[in-house]
Each structure stands twice: as C-alpha cells, then as structure tokens.
Amino acid sequence: MTNRIADLLDGLEFFKEFSYRELETISPHLMSMRSSKGEVIFHEGDPGSYMLILVRGRIAISKGGDDAGRLLCYEREGRIIGEMALLDRERRSATCVAESDCELLTLSHEGLERMTTEHPYLAYRFMFYLARLLSRRLRRTSGVLVEYLVT
What we know:
The protein is of the alpha+beta class. The chain is 41% helix and 26% strand. The protein has five helices and eight strands. A four-stranded antiparallel beta sheet has the order 1-8-3-6. It has a four-stranded antiparallel beta sheet with strand order 2-7-4-5, with no helix packed on it. Helix 1 packs across helix 2 (20-26) and helix 4 packs across helix 5. The longest helix is centred in the C-terminal third of the chain and has 31 residues, at 120-150. It is globular and about 50 Å long. The termini are far apart.
C-alpha cells in the first residue's frame, strides 16, 4: 500500500520537491478514501482534524450552509483541501462535496504528529510547504477582498 500511495503522490504539484523515497516515508501516515459523486465529504461547521489530498476527481467548496451556500470554487486533482483543520483542529469553514467520483488521501492530526516524531526533518519540510500554500491562499483571498471592497 505504501508504494501505491507514493505513486499517487508522485507528480502532484504539492509534492514536487519530495523525492520518491521521501514519498514512500510519508505514505504510511496517509489513509486512502473514496467519495461518490454528490457525496458530502464534510459540512461547514463539522469538527475537523484532517486534511485531504485530491488524487482523482473534482470537488465543490461552498460556504454559508448546504442548501443556500455560495460556491467558492471547484478543486481538481492534486489540490490540498481542509488543511486549516489539520493544523488547528477547529470546525470546518466550508462544505466540501464530490462533483465526481473522487479518490482522496487523508492526513490526520495524529498522522502528522507521528510523522513529526518518526521523521522530524521530513515533517518540517511538509509543514514548510503547507505554510507556503496557506500564504499563497491568503494573498489570493486578500486580493479578492480588496477588489470587493473597492467596487
């Protein structure tokens, strides 16, 4: 299973600076899951303690409730979803619905803690790239907010 997960990670944008050997080391800390088209993966307000790596498929992210929610974006293969809950274990800030059959990998808070204990340098690098991803998303959101406030 470790090689299969490493194969899934290999070539994804987030993991491009990790060697295949490092992906094999990360793999035991991840769990595989599938979601069917139309399935709610998590609801806004749900407790959160894991992030998702979308390996195959497409996911809709919305905010403001399931029925009257506002679509924020669609996420495609290779995207990281729910990373804030991995870090702070707060409630989910949006609803995540499978727009097609999806294959996902999950990293739980406990899995991240195990990685930190067993492979501290690799966990540090993973967290560094996660921080960089969060920084990019914050910059993009700030830009959208400024455009909204100016209009």
